[in-house]
Specification:
This protein has about 120 residues and is mainly α. The protein is built from 2 helices and no strands.
């Protein structure tokens, strides 16, 4: 087991080493005072702590993010262009309804005035 304050090796039932106990006796605190001790990184297990990412890893991660962002922007631009073209083609296509006057048939009716 290791001392909670300095990390030196001590026997199992104890929490602090003799040196740290002497220092604490010189500066006493009440038992109700909360105590927060930072763990020493050399005594914690590797699985318990996360290591800081290396510069190369951060650079690779940043490059991947930029590539993904560029790809997304290109795809979105292509979708917008397709939608604009479809809208333009929809507005410019000829109407299916006949133009005014095309659906009327002219018949000439001849009246015979000689009827009695």
């Amino acid at each position: 087991m290791h001392c909670l304050k300095c990390g030196t090796e001590i026997e199992s039932p104890h929490v602090f080493c003799e040196t740290c106990l002497e220092k604490m006796k010189q500066n006493p605190v009440s038992r109700e005072t909360p105590l927060i001790l930072q763990p020493h990184p050399e005594y914690t297990l590797m699985s318990d702590r996360k290591r800081a990412p290396k510069t190369e890893e951060l650079l690779i991660k940043s490059q991947r993010h930029c590539k993904r962002l560029k790809t997304t922007c290109v795809i979105m631009a292509m979708i917008c262009i397709c939608l604009i073209l479809l809208l333009f083609l929809w507005k410019t296509k000829p109407s299916q309804k006949p133009a005014i006057g095309q659906n009327y048939v002219a018949e000439v009716i001849v009246q015979d005035d000689n009827r009695n």
